[in-house]
Amino acid sequence: MDRELKQKCPVCGTQLRGREYFEGSNLLEAYESCPHRHYNYSFSYGYTEIWIGTYRMSMSYKDSNKKRNMDAHLYKMAVINYQEKHKEELVELLL
Question: What DSSP character marks residue 29?
Fold first, then answer.
Protein backbone atom coordinates (compact mmCIF):
# COMPACT_ATOMS: atom_id res chain seq x y z
CA MET A 1 0.00 0.00 0.00
CA ASP A 2 1.39 3.43 -0.98
CA ARG A 3 1.05 6.15 1.60
CA GLU A 4 2.39 9.48 2.77
CA LEU A 5 4.23 9.11 6.05
CA LYS A 6 4.25 11.29 9.14
CA GLN A 7 8.03 10.97 9.23
CA LYS A 8 10.11 13.62 7.56
CA CYS A 9 13.36 13.33 5.63
CA PRO A 10 16.24 13.64 8.14
CA VAL A 11 18.16 15.74 5.62
CA CYS A 12 15.65 18.28 4.28
CA GLY A 13 12.52 17.82 6.41
CA THR A 14 10.24 16.98 3.47
CA GLN A 15 7.46 14.49 4.17
CA LEU A 16 8.50 10.98 3.14
CA ARG A 17 6.55 8.66 0.86
CA GLY A 18 6.35 4.97 1.55
CA ARG A 19 4.99 1.54 0.87
CA GLU A 20 4.44 -1.38 3.24
CA TYR A 21 3.67 -5.06 2.81
CA PHE A 22 2.13 -7.15 5.61
CA GLU A 23 1.25 -10.77 6.13
CA GLY A 24 -1.43 -10.67 8.78
CA SER A 25 -0.04 -8.24 11.36
CA ASN A 26 3.62 -8.98 10.50
CA LEU A 27 5.52 -6.34 8.58
CA LEU A 28 7.40 -8.09 5.78
CA GLU A 29 8.70 -5.15 3.78
CA ALA A 30 8.70 -1.36 4.10
CA TYR A 31 10.08 1.36 1.87
CA GLU A 32 10.40 5.10 2.53
CA SER A 33 11.91 7.77 0.33
CA CYS A 34 12.44 11.49 0.12
CA PRO A 35 10.99 12.99 -3.08
CA HIS A 36 14.26 14.94 -3.44
CA ARG A 37 16.33 11.73 -3.26
CA HIS A 38 18.21 12.72 -0.10
CA TYR A 39 17.07 9.67 1.87
CA ASN A 40 15.88 6.14 1.13
CA TYR A 41 15.00 3.42 3.60
CA SER A 42 14.11 -0.19 2.94
CA PHE A 43 13.27 -3.02 5.30
CA SER A 44 12.82 -6.55 4.07
CA TYR A 45 12.54 -9.66 6.23
CA GLY A 46 14.80 -8.38 9.05
CA TYR A 47 17.35 -6.60 6.84
CA THR A 48 17.46 -2.78 6.73
CA GLU A 49 19.22 -0.58 4.19
CA ILE A 50 19.45 3.21 4.45
CA TRP A 51 20.81 5.60 1.84
CA ILE A 52 21.67 9.20 2.64
CA GLY A 53 22.67 10.66 -0.68
CA THR A 54 25.23 8.17 -1.94
CA TYR A 55 26.18 6.89 1.53
CA ARG A 56 24.78 3.40 2.20
CA MET A 57 24.25 1.71 5.56
CA SER A 58 22.91 -1.77 6.17
CA MET A 59 21.71 -3.45 9.33
CA SER A 60 20.19 -6.75 10.38
CA TYR A 61 18.11 -7.89 13.33
CA LYS A 62 21.03 -10.20 14.16
CA ASP A 63 23.46 -7.29 14.71
CA SER A 64 25.03 -6.85 18.13
CA ASN A 65 24.19 -3.88 20.36
CA LYS A 66 27.71 -2.55 19.78
CA LYS A 67 27.17 -2.55 15.99
CA ARG A 68 23.72 -0.95 16.39
CA ASN A 69 25.20 1.85 18.51
CA MET A 70 27.98 2.40 15.97
CA ASP A 71 25.46 2.42 13.12
CA ALA A 72 23.34 5.02 14.96
CA HIS A 73 26.40 7.26 15.32
CA LEU A 74 27.40 6.78 11.66
CA TYR A 75 23.84 7.55 10.58
CA LYS A 76 23.84 10.87 12.47
CA MET A 77 27.24 11.78 11.02
CA ALA A 78 26.09 10.92 7.49
CA VAL A 79 23.07 13.21 7.82
CA ILE A 80 25.21 16.07 9.15
CA ASN A 81 27.85 15.61 6.43
CA TYR A 82 25.22 15.50 3.68
CA GLN A 83 23.56 18.65 5.01
CA GLU A 84 26.93 20.44 5.10
CA LYS A 85 27.82 19.44 1.53
CA HIS A 86 24.41 20.42 0.14
CA LYS A 87 23.62 23.57 2.15
CA GLU A 88 22.73 25.70 -0.87
CA GLU A 89 20.37 23.10 -2.33
CA LEU A 90 18.64 22.64 1.04
CA VAL A 91 18.21 26.40 1.53
CA GLU A 92 16.49 26.60 -1.89
CA LEU A 93 14.07 23.83 -0.89
CA LEU A 94 13.12 25.66 2.28
CA LEU A 95 12.41 28.97 0.51
Answer: E
